[in-house]
């Protein structure tokens, strides 16, 4: 659920968000929407600016939510036995 406050914060960046560069998921190539990503997290103005800089950076790649969740669960599966070996 998105708060009115958060919507107002994003409203200040409306122009920048519209002009943001097109981004595609690094894994599946699906188009990413900056606004969709920003709406998922509660951010203050400073965090939104930082996120925007990352979005515009040519050195950073993003995953879409589906790919990210997939990778996260794969990593958990891979790392689990290692943790067990280390811990027990
Ligand atoms: Zn993807």
Q: What is the topological layout?
A:
Blueprint: H1 4-11, H2 14-19, E1 23-24, E2 31-32, H3 34-40, H4 45-56, H5 65-87
Antiparallel strand pairs: 1-2
The structure holds zinc ion.
Report on this model:
With 88 residues, the chain is mainly α. The chain has one domain. It has helices at 4-11, 14-19, 34-40, 45-56, 65-87, and strands at 23-24, 31-32. The protein has a two-stranded antiparallel sheet. The longest helix has 23 residues, at 65-87. The chain is globular. It starts with a helix and ends with a helix. Zinc ion is lined by residues 25, 27-28, 30, 63-64, 66-67.
What is the share of helical residues? Answer: 55-70%
Overall tally of domains:
1
Hetero ligands: zinc ion
**How many helices does DSSP assign?**
5
Instruction: Determine Rg (CA atoms, Å).
Output: 17 Å
Main sheet specs: 2 strands, antiparallel
Unreliable sequence segments? none
Calculate the terminal CA-CA distance, rounded to whole Å: 41 Å
Shape label = globular
Q: Tell me what portion of residues adopts beta-strand conformation.
A: under 5%
The helix/strand class is: mainly alpha
- Multimeric status of the protein: single chain
Average of the residue pLDDT scores: 81
Strand order of the largest sheet: 1-2
Question: What order do the helices and strands follow?
Answer: HHEEHHH
